[in-house]
Amino acid sequence: MLFASSTRDIPALRRVPEHVAVIMDGNGRWAKKRFMPRVAGHHQGVEAVRGITRDCAARGVRFLTLFTFSSENWRRPPDEVAVLRQLLHRALEDEVEWLHSARVRLKIIGDITAFGADTVELVKRVEAKTAGNERLVLTLAVNYGGRWDIIQAMNRLAVAHPERAGQFTEADLAPFLAGSYAPEPDLFIRTGGEQRISNFLLWQLAYSEMYFTNTLWPDFNATELDAAITAYQTRERRFGRTSEQLSEEKRKALPAEGALAQHSSRDALVRSVPG
User: Fold this and answer.
1) Active-site residue, from 25, 55, 149, 186
2) Does residue 6 lie in a domain region?
3) Range(s) of the domain holding residue 256
4) Is residue 206 in some structural domain?
5) Is residue 250 located within the same domain as residue 132?
6) Which of 20, 145, 160, 125 is CA-nearest to residue 70?
7) Which of 21, 42, 91, 219 has its C-alpha lying 20 to 30 A from 240's C-alpha?
8) Is 221 an annotated catalytic residue?
């Protein structure tokens, strides 16, 4: 089965983030600890991508965005860059049938043209094949940078509405950002021990909850994901409001929540885990 975990294996996650964004850090160090070449870590990292995609879908996450190749990664040793480019192409070819069968839609954001015409064409085919899938939207940020994203959005907005130059608002810019089809991430995860966002989704992460773990990406599994979501559930997301305002909003919502409570706990769990 594509999603082998049964509902009893999945913790009753009260407030599952709709959108999770991840910087997958630590592939090279994972390999080094095992006296293996860095490329072995990248290959193992691809396996972790499949696992986190499956586990997010099983928990009711609707959007998963992974920082796959940053615009700064071109600075790495040429042989490693070549491997990363080949690995992306091969992964797209190998995983498209699995993604489609699992009802996962694949989207790519970033300047993919730098990867060559063959990869651009492959991306188009994979996106088209999975376009109708609705279980989870998996976005790979490839040759992507947050600053690049804001600049390209500004340029596109200026071309679309030159008559409004000098009067643009945040709401005007948002539809031109890469990944505008998805809500802003609720939860941002970075593996590998570093605690920075590294030019990833600079605009979109403005109000995301941050979670940093020392776990290296190839070792990030369902247990690690549940720990991140549990930490997210402890956060109070105020979006500029006070705790008192949130409490009042919750109090006013109690009658509606009371009506929902008449449903069985089993029905609530089924609603939280699609499909």
Assistant:
1) 25
2) no
3) 245-275
4) yes
5) no
6) 145
7) 21
8) no
